Amino acid sequence: MNDQEVQIIDFEEMLRFIESRLASAGQYVKRDAIIAILQAEEAFLLEKGVLQEYNE
pTM value? Predict the structure, then answer.
């Protein structure tokens, strides 16, 4: 069995970070749009095997 590092990402923290970066660039994107993009990215990465579901 391989040793794998599990890293948990706080979704709210990531969302605030993205909002902050966009604001710094003078852009405003609705939170719902950012969430939709993040969910699509997650689905893509799961499909490609880059991310895996983690069950405790």
Answer: 0.76
Q: Give the number of residues written for the chain.
A: 56
Q: For residue range 1-54, what is the model confidence (pLDDT) as tens digits?
A: 456 777 888 999 999 999 999 999 999 999 999 999 999 999 999 999 988 887
Maximum separation of any 2 CA atoms in the chain, in Å: 47
Residue 34 makes CB contacts below 8 A (sequence gap 6+) with 15, 18, 19, 22
Token pair of 47 as six digits:
């499909």
What angle separates helix 31-48 from helix 11-24, to the nearest 10 degrees? 120
